Amino acid sequence: MSRDPLGDRPVLARPAPRPAPRPARSGLPPGGRGSLRRVTSTWLQNDLGLLIGALGLSLVGVVLVWSATRSSAGGSAALKQLVALAIGVGCAAAVTRLDVRTVRAVAPVVYVLAVLGLAAVVSPLGSTVNGSRSWIRLPGGTSLQPSEFMKVALAVGLAMLLAERAERGLRQRHRDVVLAWVVAGIPVLLVLAQPDLGSALVLVAMSVVIIAAAGAPWLWTAAVLVAGAGAVAAAFLTPVLSGYQRNRLRAFLDPTLDPQGIGYQTRQVRIAIGSGGLGGQGLFEGRQTQGGFIPFQETDFVFSVAGEELGFLGAAGVVLLIGFIVVRCIVVARRADAFGRLVATGVAVWLGVQAFENVGMNLGLMPVTGLPLPFVSSGGSSLIASWVAIGLVGNVASVSAQGRRHRIVSPTA
């Protein structure tokens, strides 16, 4: 205690400050804890349910491909599927960690590269399989299907083009909608030139929903739907499709038209699914599957493997997993900004429409168009592109989580 020099009041002396405690030795370099915390936080901001659902569905696909090809190709097809899965997961992880500004900046480059890939397919570089010139042969006996990666490019390209006005809550101008449909129409025409009606329908469905969700006038959406119906009718009546593909469409209406071709294939698929019953004949025990009665079963008709060997319960589980992934994409879209909302919406439409068409053609409810079942069918291009789409949605979910955390913290900062 001391005296105040200006008075007689006693003044209590302040205690000396205590030295700051030394941080505990952790073995991490300076900033190591913070770096680890940031990495952990980044991964927790992603939609783990979406990632787990896609990984589980992909592993189911590997098993089904193995079952469909074990008698003809041994384990080579399943091994290729595992390699494609590893590449796809790596691509998804890389895309998830990208800054959203980087994604928007590279969207035009990705779109141009995808268009060049489609142009290469219809050039002498392309390879024809089953009447469709949709592949580019690569060294090592592998092939690339650019139309699968075009789905990724179109989702980010249209979102980048339309997000600016959507972010401000403005309706899209007519010239913006015209430009968007030019951007969408170029790949659609190139895919139809292969010809690949199934992939073209997926691209059109994505474009319609993305452009409508961005605030386009409803007359544009109605006009495109009418034009789409006319294009489908023209596919039946004109030689825009190959004879093989027209036979597929006609056999859907009347399977007796091609009893030894598409009619035979679809009939065997229905027999396989119908014989599965509730619980299935058992994995690797399906008579149609193991007997090799269904051509291209590991690609177009892999769902029939689940129906025959895993039964109604197993096939329903596959459908529920796909539905879960689509719903998670929609949930992410509802929480995102304009750009992320359009990207996630496009991915949801892509996966949903493609799965509906594939399962429908296995059940005889839709014509056979050659579309793979996302994450399940054999095919490296389809699997890798689907995982890149999951990475995009994960990126959107991460950005949305950061934005919500910032809004919560900033008022008290």
Overview features:
single chain, 4% strand, mainly alpha, two-stranded antiparallel ribbon, 68% helix, 413 residues, 5 strands, 3-stranded antiparallel sheet
| Proportion of helical residues | 55-70%
Tally of extended strands?
5
The average pLDDT is 83
Structural class: mainly alpha
Content of β-strand: under 5%
Unreliable residue stretches: 4-13, 22-44
Order of strands in the sheet with most strands: 3-4-5
Along the chain, the helix and strand elements come as EEHHHHEEEHHHHHHHHHH
Separation, N- and C-terminal Cα atoms: 39 Å
Shape: globular
Query: What's the helix count?
Result: 14
Largest sheet: 3 strands, antiparallel
Radius of gyration: 27 Å
Write a structural description.
- The protein is mainly alpha-helical and 413 residues long.
- Helix content is 68%, strand content 4%.
- Strand 4 (132-138) and strand 5 (142-144) form a beta hairpin.
- Helix 4 (100-121) crosses helix 6 (174-192).
- The longest helix is centred in the C-terminal third of the chain and has 34 residues, at 302-335.
